[in-house]
Amino acid sequence: MKKTVRLPRTPYEKIWGSPLTEPWYPNAEAAKIGEIWFTASESVPILVKFLFTSDNLSIQVHPGGATGKTEMWHILRAGPGAKIGLGLKRSVSPAELRKAALTGEIVDLLNWIPVKPGETYFTPAGTVHALGGDIALCEIQQRSDITYRLYDWGRTGRELHLDQGIAVSFPEPATGAVAPRRLESHRHSLVECEYFNTEHLLVRGSVVFPAQPGRSLAVVLTGSGLIDGQEFTAGETWEIEPDGPIEISSDDAAFLITAVPA
């Protein structure tokens, strides 16, 4: 009996999305694909997304708690000058944050960070943030998708949520890229938080992934091969049952493995 299940994927077009989704998915001829969602079973309250940007996302914030949205980003592709906004350059009062959102000064207040493939960024709920254009990334988050827009670059027809957003914001600086913690030569812990633990796994040959106390998700970033005897390829997400180890084999593949902390 197989211990892994390939999750179905659901694409969503976004105003800031991109038709350039290769090598993970065939490029879209006309559609601007912004997000590809992978929703696991109810026992794994984690949502995996692949994001593709051609323009800036809104400057936004997410609420906290069990129904909030803490997330992490693993950068897969970044064009020249690609950047993310993560936290603020300095601490401000709620009143200052509101004024900056209304005037557009929030753009310069945001801490913009140049990014490159292979980097990981942790975005706790309450962090004011944005993604710039020309980026592909894998996002791992709580299953809730509540987003409060603070500023939307002058776009029309999209609601702002200043009262809700400012109420849940921590208007202060945030940390930069995550420093991976070595577990084994081929495994590195990236993020450990209340809602998910995520590690980076390299497979060159054959690897036995040990049994976990609960279900986990294996996100294929690059490469192809076999997982639990089934063929996998980049851009897929697999749900792994907890009963027993699984074997992953590939000439060269990279995964994010994530699970709810035991």
Question: Please, could you describe this protein's structure?
Answer:
There is one protein chain. This protein is mainly β and 262 residues long. The chain folds into 2 domains: 165 residues, Sandwich (Jelly Rolls); 79 residues, Jelly Rolls. 8% of the residues lie in helices and 48% in strands. The chain is built from 3 helices and 20 strands. The strands form 4 sheets. Strands 1, 13, 14, 15, 16, 17, 18, 19 and 20 form a 9-stranded antiparallel β-sheet that branches. The protein has a 6-stranded antiparallel β-sheet with strand order 2-3-4-11-6-9, with no helix packed on it. A 3-stranded antiparallel β-sheet has the order 8-7-10. A hairpin with a 6-residue loop joins strand 3 and strand 4. The longest helix has 10 residues. The protein starts with a strand and ends with a strand. The model has no long low-confidence stretch (mean pLDDT 96).
Task: Please outline what is shown here.
Helices cover 8% and strands 48% of the residues. It is mainly beta. The strands form 4 sheets. Strands 1, 13, 14, 15, 16, 17, 18, 19 and 20 form a 9-stranded antiparallel sheet that branches.
Record keyword descriptors for this entry.
262 residues; Jelly Rolls; 2 domains; nine-stranded antiparallel beta sheet; 20 strands
Give the N-to-C terminal Cα separation: 25 Å
Q: Radius of gyration, rounded?
A: 19 Å
In total, how many domains does the architecture comprise?
2
CATH architecture name of the largest domain: Sandwich
**Helix amount:** under 10%
Strand-pairing-aware structural class = mainly beta
Mean pLDDT level:
96
